[in-house]
């Protein structure tokens, strides 16, 4: 593939390597990753300047590695959602700065330093590319299970892909994954389940529906810090209901529950301005408890997060007794006994933000869930009440909720 006008334009490098590389990364067209020139047109090796540039230009393997890094970076930047794309760019900038530091590594040699750092970055970008491929295949299961199966087979030796192949065998006949293939994949995933693997027995044996969902959760738990898409498994909660909420909720009663259910509420329910105001008003009371010693609070927070996800997907489940529950929850906030731990002004600000949150939730239910105005009003009241009930309980007793 040729470089030049369709990739990074050639130029003489008069600044230090890191500054040039950062500027070029920012100029990379995200929508056209295939045009990233594998011939590495970024570098003008006719007049190399500085130890880093001279070392790269003198070593074809370093030029090839840098070019491959640029290609992988461009592919990922084009494919990732906007919020993850920003962090990818920050990581690439940090790597470029670290690469430039190799010019000061005289004792170790600039070339070996560059090779080591390029190899590490290549490995990380390749891992991200594989991770993205698996997550994209998972997200595509409801629409094209056969295509998802084809992708997952390529990564079938990894626990996450193996667990999903087992899922396809059980729940998606159209995927083409046979029962035998699914059984073998399930055994591979169980063997690598790590912490929590001992839970996969009895009613939660992965040979049963509930156990298979739990196996999926454990593989996500193990790689939650590596995930690139926000919630590729969202369809599980819509499809399996209580089984999925139980599998992805608090199961450990410890810090292992952190991050569960690995999904934020759908369709921006709690990101609306009024809900943000409610969250800010709660923060002075819940932040000290969130940071307190002990690990059981992670289970409580996982339960809240799971319920908030369910509130966004099945809001009708929370409508019952809304007005009475809301009144009681507000009364609890007003009569809070510890004014030092939760100042009255913060509590009053919270209560003042509730009507706007309820109004915005009414509109959200109409727009996103097709509710009638009457049903939306009744349900919105129940959702606000549930939100307060959960966080009141956490603030009051984070370790025993």
From TrEMBL:
GO terms for cellular component? extracellular region
Extract the signal peptide range: 1-36
Read off the Pfam families from this record. Answer: LprI
Taking the record's annotation, the residue ranges forming a coiled coil are none
All copies of the Lysozyme inhibitor LprI-like N-terminal domain together span 53-125
InterPro entries, alphabetized: LprI-like_N, Lysozyme_Inhibitor_LprI
Q: Provide this UniProt record's keywords sorted from A to Z.
A: Signal
Which top-level group of life is the source organism from?
Answer: Bacteria
Listed PANTHER family: LIPOPROTEIN LPRI
Question: What is the official name of this protein in its record?
Answer: Lysozyme inhibitor LprI-like N-terminal domain-containing protein
UniProt organism field: Labrys okinawensis
């Amino acid at each position: 593939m040729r470089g030049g006008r369709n990739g990074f334009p050639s130029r003489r490098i008069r600044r230090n390597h890191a500054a040039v590389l950062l500027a070029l990364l920012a100029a990379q067209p995200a929508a056209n990753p295939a045009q990233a020139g594998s011939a590495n047109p970024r570098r003008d090796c006719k007049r190399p300047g500085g130890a880093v540039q001279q070392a790269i230009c003198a070593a074809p393997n370093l030029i090839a590695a840098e070019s491959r890094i640029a290609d992988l970076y461009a592919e990922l930047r084009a494919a990732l959602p906007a919020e993850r794309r920003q962090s990818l760019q920050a990581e690439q900038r940090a790597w470029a700065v670290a690469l430039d530091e190799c010019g000061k590594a005289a004792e170790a040699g600039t070339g070996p330093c560059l090779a080591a750092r390029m190899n590490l970055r290549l490995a990380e970008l390749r891992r991200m590319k594989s991770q993205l491929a698996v997550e994209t295949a998972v997200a595509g299961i409801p629409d094209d299970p056969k295509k998802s199966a084809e992708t997952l087979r390529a990564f079938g030796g990894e626990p996450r892909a193996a667990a999903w192949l087992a899922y396809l065998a059980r729940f998606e006949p159209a995927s083409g994954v046979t029962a035998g293939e699914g059984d073998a994949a399930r055994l591979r995933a169980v063997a690598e389940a790590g912490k929590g693997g001992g839970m996969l027995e009895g009613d939660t044996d992965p040979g049963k529906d509930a156990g298979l969902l739990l196996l999926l959760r454990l593989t996500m738990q193990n790689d939650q810090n590596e995930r690139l898409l926000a919630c590729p498994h969202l369809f599980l909660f819509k499809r399996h209901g209580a089984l999925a909420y139980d599998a992805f909720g608090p199961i450990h009663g410890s810090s292992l529950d952190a991050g569960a259910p690995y999904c934020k509420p759908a369709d921006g329910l709690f990101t609306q301005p009024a809900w943000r105001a409610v969250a800010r008003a709660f923060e002075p009371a819940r932040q000290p408890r969130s940071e307190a010693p002990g690990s059981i609070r992670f289970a409580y927070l996982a339960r809240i997060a799971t319920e908030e996800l369910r509130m966004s997907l099945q809001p009708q489940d929370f409508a019952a007794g809304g007005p009475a529950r809301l009144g009681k929850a507000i009364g609890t906030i007003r009569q809070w006994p510890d004014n030092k731990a939760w100042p009255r002004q913060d509590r009053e600000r919270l209560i003042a933000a509730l009507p706007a949150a309820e109004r915005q939730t009414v509109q959200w239910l109409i727009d996103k869930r097709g509710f009638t105005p009457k049903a939306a009003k009744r349900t919105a009241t129940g959702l606000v009440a549930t939100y307060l009930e959960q966080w009141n309980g956490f603030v009051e007793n984070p370790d025993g909720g």
